[in-house]
Specification:
This protein is mostly beta strands and 99 residues long. It has one domain (18-91): Immunoglobulin-like (Sandwich). The chain is 0% helix and 38% strand. The strands form 2 sheets. Strands 1-6-5-4 form a 4-stranded antiparallel beta sheet, with no helix packed on it. The chain has a 3-stranded antiparallel beta sheet with strand order 3-2-7, with no helix packed on it. Strand 2 and strand 3 form a beta hairpin. It is globular and about 35 Å long. This is Ig-like domain-containing protein. Keywords: Adaptive immunity, Cell membrane, Disulfide bond, Glycoprotein, Immunity, Membrane, Signal. InterPro entries: Ig-like_dom, Ig-like_dom_sf, Ig-like_fold, Ig_sub, Ig_V-set, TCR_complex_component. It is found in: Cell membrane.
Length: 99
């Protein structure tokens, strides 16, 4: 799996967009970029993932550079409830089909 690097901490004004960068310069063509967050004393929570295209869901947007060497998680209207440790993880996405 590719190595990821992120800032150790970031500050954000409440109600404004929070942009969380992640560098993954050794990513391969078939590895997905996953973001999770962990709120104090809770288990990790899935936020969003993507391969090449930018993605958006109800919680966040994921912007992936064209060369896929970095990405940015965008929380459009950050609030105190979004305070957490955010993890950027690069790995293959396995799908288990159930028949």
């Amino acid at each position: 799996d590719a190595k990821t690097t992120q800032p150790t901490s970031m500050d954000c004004a409440e109600g404004r967009a929070a942009n969380l960068p992640c560098n993954h310069s050794t990513i391969s063509g078939s590895e997905y970029i996953h973001w999770y967050r962990q709120i104090h004393s809770q288990g990790p929570q899935y936020v969003i993932h993507g391969l090449k295209n930018n993605e958006t869901n109800a919680m966040a947007s994921l912007i992936i550079t064209e060369d896929r060497k970095s990405s940015t998680l965008i929380l459009p209207h950050a609030t105190l409830r979004d305070t957490a440790v955010y993890y950027c993880i690069v790995r293959f996405c396995h799908v288990n089909w159930i028949y």
